[in-house]
Design brief:
With about 170 residues, the protein is mainly alpha-helical. The chain has five helices and no strands.
Length: about 170
């Protein structure tokens, strides 16, 4: 029975093999992640809030204001809605993939440390059990996940429909 399947072989190949190297690299990534979150969490939240308002307005303009707008302005609304939503959803998926990739790496290290019996591997096993996963914060209270893009789309569609019904 193999510990690592073929799909994860490349990922495991790029991870430092010695526990000290791995812990040093992981700690550096944690520090970079903390610095990024402290510097950019508020900016990301403001950016996504403004984009949410823009996307909702573009959708509303596309569906409700067709007769009151010129053809050129009306054509800009769906283009803005589709391109903006596409870019935001793809960005949110990429930011959410940090946590998923980190979870996969820790899981692979856990599996490879389970088959080793050295003192380093015992320390590594204890560290891997208590390791905090890297994450990119969306605001003070939330972080990006692989479903962040889907939740953003749900909110845009929900509020667009609410405005259309009013």
């Amino acid at each position: 029975m193999t510990v690592v399947d073929g799909a994860n072989q490349d990922l495991l190949h790029n991870i430092p093999g010695h526990p000290d190297e791995f812990l040093k690299l992981y700690r550096q990534l944690q520090i970079l992640c903390i610095l990024f979150n402290n510097a950019h969490a508020d900016i990301l939240f403001c950016h996504h809030a403004a984009a949410f308002v823009t996307q909702t307005a573009a959708n509303y303009g596309t569906l409700k204001l067709k007769s009151k707008m010129s053809l050129g302005a009306w054509i800009c609304c769906p283009v803005l809605a589709v391109s903006g939503t596409n870019n935001l959803v793809r960005t949110q998926i990429k930011l959410g993939s940090v946590r998923d990739s980190c979870r996969k790496v820790v899981k692979l290290r856990r599996a490879s440390a389970a088959h080793s019996i050295t003192a380093d591997s015992n320390y590594m096993k204890k560290w891997l059990i208590s390791a905090t996963l890297l994450k990119i914060n969306h605001s003070v209270f939330t972080h990006f996940t692989h479903l962040s893009g889907v939740h953003f789309m749900e909110l845009v569609v929900d509020y667009t429909i609410d405005f259309l019904v009013m």
